[in-house]
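(Structure overview)
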Amino acid sequence: MPRFAANLTMLYNEHTFLDRFAAAAEDGFQAVEYLFPYAFKSTELDLRLRDNGLQQVLFNAPPGDWEAGERGLACLPGREAEFRSGFACALDYAQVLNCPRIHVMAGLAPAGVERTTLQATYESNLAWAAEQAAAAGRDVLIEPINTRDIPGFFLNRQDEAHRIVQAIGAANLKVQFDLYHCQIVEGDVASKIRQYLPTGRVGHFQIAGVPERHEPSVGELNYPYLFQVIDEVAQQYGWQGWVGCEYRPQRGTCAGATRQGLDWIRSLA
């Protein structure tokens, strides 16, 4: 069975953020991920990890002005200095939290800017980030995201992401393979796991039910089968990463909502 990490941005919203660490540990999770750590001191987050015996396996670099609708800076011409400053901050957090992976969001494609210009900016920023991260012993991840959830997002397909990673050629630049986004944009998810996991370019998986983004047991994807595919290929090629549970509990934020929706993971034991 794959190793699952609780996404504390989406799960356990019935608790305040800092209390979600204990809730995840009580339900048997050994690792966590979330979108952003920056509202809290890194030392405070590290204490929550240590107190609950948890590993931090992923978080995102600063995305720009999230509240204003920005979803990353990496492809945006003229924002390079802000991107670099934000990524340096992410590396500082990763050091304290002993987090091996930082996700860099591509950003929204601005109207009127040629895609070739955005692509050049994106690849330049990623190459710089990968070099900085390598010196700190961290991986940089990029994630294709569907344009239904984030209209205008620059990176949408697995083949695009893998071409970029290959073109840059940094060993620590990898793809964050979200099965939910892949199913919405492309489908044929099992074949893509078999295609890309052996390449060594997949750094992390994420899951959610399609189309509502609820528990993996809800929706059109056969996750028990897909977990078997991940296990099969991972064992064959020595992949030892994590699968992030990035879904919204069907019962929302009512008391016990996340725990009551974990039957899908208990059934795998």
Summary: The chain has a mean pLDDT of 97. The CA atoms of residues 28 and 266 lie 10 Å apart.
